[in-house]
Specification:
By secondary structure, the protein is mostly helical. It contains four helices and no strands. It has a domain of 59 residues. 4% of the residues are buried.
Length: 85
């Protein structure tokens, strides 16, 4: 049982990392199918994708040029920290 939970955690983390590419249609057909199979089995990730879609719909598209330089720099720094773990 614990091994199953560990596998699910890894898959969920991967799904969170892939959500932007999935929504932008940038995944390969194979990865798109893997992602969708995971969503069918994981209520948490399915809800996460629903929330991201709602956020995009509500906020619209923000271009880097729309942000103040300090805001853009702050977001880049947060992203770097996230990627480094």
């Amino acid at each position: 049982m614990k091994l199953h939970a560990l596998r699910r955690d890894i898959v969920c983390r991967e799904a969170v990392e892939l959500v932007t590419d999935y929504l932008e249609g940038a995944l390969s057909p194979r990865d798109t199918r893997r992602f969708e199979v995971h969503l069918e089995a994981c209520d948490g990730c399915e809800e996460y994708v629903r929330q991201v879609r709602a956020t995009i719909r509500i906020l619209g598209v923000v271009q880097p040029e729309d942000l103040a330089p300090e805001t853009r720099q702050g977001l880049l720094e947060l992203y770097r920290q996230f990627r480094e773990g």
